[in-house]
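Forum: Protein Structure Q&A
Topic: Joint prediction for protein chains with partners

I've read a bunch of threads here and the consensus seems to be that you should model interacting components together rather than docking separate models afterwards. I'd like to see that in practice. Below is the full input, 309 residues plus whatever partners are listed. Could one of the regulars post the assembled result?
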Amino acid sequence: MELSSLAGNSRLKELLSHREEGRGLSHAYIISGPAGSGRHTLARLLAAAMVCTAHPGSRPCGRCAPCKKVFGGIHPDVAVISGVGEGKPITVDQIRSLRADAHIRPNEGERKVYLLEGADQMNAAAQNAMLKLLEEGPQYAAFLLLAENGGGLLQTVRSRCEELTLSPVPVKECQDWLEKRFPQKTGEEVRQAALDCQGLLGRAVERLEGTAESLQARESQAVKLADALETRTELELFEAAMVLDKQSREELPRLLDALERELTGRMARRQDRRRLFRGVELTRQIRAAARLNANPGQLAGWLCAGMFI
Ligand SMILES: [Zn+2]
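Posted by a regular:
Agreed with the consensus. Here's the joint model:
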């Protein structure tokens, strides 16, 4: 497997690198590690490797159509499931719908891949429904269970999965990786971010991207979007929401967070909160979709359809 875009974690990469020549990838993984440790990066790489059409030794190639779709967030056979609402776990009902969906054959390739956010937060009923799916699901279905702590999953579920645990990236490797990623930053900024992130590169990336200037721009975009969501017509909302489709993969979740904060802040001050509630709900849905996908696409359309149907 081709995993060079994942920083550090050399043992894990070594472990996965020979998979295609050997027994291939398994159909169920637990990907565990703290926030910022690279779980989503690894999940995306695994999902792409599963649908990639390149020579087995070089999957994911990043160049074939299926790879591009996974990294672009538009592959119809790669789905992300997360709890509905901030910090809410995936429910047993969601697992049941997932099971129904899994029995529909893939649209494009040989496999269907499901990524489950916060799998360790699911209650016993949801985990048991998941277990059944792991045991009896169709051959082509693969499951990537993201967890902060693999120990939060039932032993029965764990025994059906291969667990991949992400480790903190050493300071030197963090620094090298960040230098390549942020050539415009000074050596000192990068060094300090590498030192402070405790091996969790996601944190360092967040910090280096969050300059005062971009913060201000983001806040004002969030206010405009919130205005449009709360009071404007469908067309006006659509125009305002085009800003979402222009965001980079890194910036989009931050803008959505700022938007959610803005909308929730307004709720306390309003009588009629229906549109605000709906706006928060949609913002969370879009953020969940954006987690795995580099660019879910058509977000302005998504937002308008959700608000006005
Ligand atoms: Zn490929």
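The chain has a mean pLDDT of 89.
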